[in-house]
Amino acid sequence: MEYRVLGTSDLKVSVIGFGAWGIGGSPFWSNEGDSISVRAIRKAYDLGINFFDTAPVYGFGHSEELLGKTLKPFRDKVIYATKCGLRWEKKSLSSITKNATRRSILEEIDQSLKRLDTDY
User: Was domain 3-115 assigned CATH 3.20.20.100?
Assistant: First the structure.
């Protein structure tokens, strides 16, 4: 696997990243099941992918939870990219709203860190 420095940081990321939108589960995302998703995450890691892209809204947090659980033993070797700005009141697509206020962003950071089971 090739790696490149991310921007002006000292982080080396794989040139191929793992997009975790599809592992969020129903209703809008793939519904293949967690065991297939976990195998895909592990296979990506085993092939040298260390950059994992997700978002809180992917499966209403389920994508972040799966990544955190599956990659916990390798946390110091992987880099997560997550997003913010879409919130929901209940787990339904019709409840998704945009919110990019400072308060909402800080709340989403804390929630994503919990779901990813990490402190950074």
Answer: yes
53-101 confidence digits (pLDDT tens): 999 988 889 999 999 999 999 999 999 999 999 887 776 777 788 999 9
Angle at Cα 106 formed by Cα 120 and Cα 27, nearest 5°?
85
Residue from 62, 57, 47, 38 nearest 96 by CA: 57
Q: How many helices (H) and strands (E) does the chain have?
A: 3, 7
Mean pLDDT of all residues in 3-24: 95
Q: What is the pTM of this model?
A: 0.89
Handedness of CA 103, 69, 6, 14 (dihedral sign): negative
Q: Which residues does the annotation mark as catalytic?
A: 58
Task: Tell how far CA 62 is from the center of its chain.
Answer: 9
One-letter amino acid of 97: T
- Look up tokens 């297939």; give the residue: 36
Taking the C-alpha atoms of residue 37 and residue 20, their distance in angstroms, rounded to an integer, is 9
User: How large a percentage of the chain has pLDDT more than 70?
Assistant: 93
